[in-house]
């Protein structure tokens, strides 16, 4: 008679350790979300979705860009984040009363932010709510989802409609010529980093005297 325990498959110690690590990480993530200190606005509260061509900035880069936007907008300024959710989340973390911010984003998960969320599809650059008045933002920070001239050109239409003048664009270094052509922006010395390393070199571009040089 076979021992009953013989036909129970055993996991290798390596697989078991990997599984335990996975469950532990999951528990920690859930624990963070349920803890009192968890902030629904913090980067990571909504995880990046590569299928939507989302790549979050590192915490340091998001903070740097958020601070730049606040300074550029000025006291009581309005900031629009176009396809730049990690900067939006960093701005919300600051809980500032000196500025207001809204997010234009294709990912409907960001609707949890209520009235500040505006559904945005770059293919329809001016398909915007009526209450989003032209030239009503002191600065627009934008990160077009794709490194193509078509995507940049269409996003540029949205940016030009929204901004009173100041533009902070984040896109690939290979887009320098097109960025100048469509938005009149120049490359900065500051180099943005992402939470996961990307194959393409990214840069920031502005059309005003910024703190990114």
UniProtKB/TrEMBL annotation:
Transferase found in the keyword field? yes
Q: State the UniProt keywords alphabetically.
A: Cytoplasm, Methyltransferase, Transferase
Under catalytic activity, the entry for this protein gives:
L-lysyl-[protein] + 3 S-adenosyl-L-methionine = N(6),N(6),N(6)-trimethyl-L-lysyl-[protein] + 3 S-adenosyl-L-homocysteine + 3 H(+)
Can the keyword Methyltransferase be found in this entry's annotation?
yes
> Can you tell which superkingdom this protein's organism belongs to?
Eukaryota
This chain's protein is named EFMT1 methyltransferase
- GO process terms (BP): methylation
Q: What does UniProt give as the signal peptide span? A: none
Entry GO MF terms:
nucleic acid binding; protein-lysine N-methyltransferase activity
Locations listed in the record: Cytoplasm
Which PROSITE patterns does the record associate with it? N6_MTASE
Task: Say where the protein is mainly found.
Answer: cytoplasm
What the entry lists under Pfam families is as follows: N6-adenineMlase
Q: Name one GO cellular component term.
A: cytoplasm
């Amino acid at each position: 008679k076979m021992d009953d325990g013989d036909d129970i498959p055993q996991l290798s110690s390596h697989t078991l350790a990997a599984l335990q690590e996975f469950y532990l990480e999951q528990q920690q993530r859930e624990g963070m979300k349920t803890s009192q200190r968890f902030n629904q606005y913090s980067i990571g509260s909504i995880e990046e979705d590569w299928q939507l061509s989302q790549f979050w900035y590192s915490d340091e880069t998001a903070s740097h860009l958020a601070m730049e936007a606040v300074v550029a907008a000025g006291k009581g300024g309005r900031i629009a984040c176009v396809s730049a959710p990690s900067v939006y989340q960093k701005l919300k973390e600051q809980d500032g009363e000196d500025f207001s911010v809204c997010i234009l984003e294709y990912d409907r998960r960001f609707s949890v932010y209520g009235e500040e969320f505006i559904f945005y599809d770059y293919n329809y650059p001016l398909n915007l709510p009526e209450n989003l008045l032209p030239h009503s933002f002191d600065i627009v920070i934008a990160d077009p989802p794709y490194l193509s001239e078509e995507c940049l050109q269409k996003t540029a239409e949205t940016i030009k409609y929204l901004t009173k003048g100041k533009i902070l664009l984040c896109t690939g270094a290979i887009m320098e010529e097109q960025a100048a052509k469509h938005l009149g922006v120049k490359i900065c010395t500051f180099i943005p980093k992402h939470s996961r390393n990307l194959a393409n070199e990214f840069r920031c571009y502005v059309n005003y005297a910024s703190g990114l040089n």
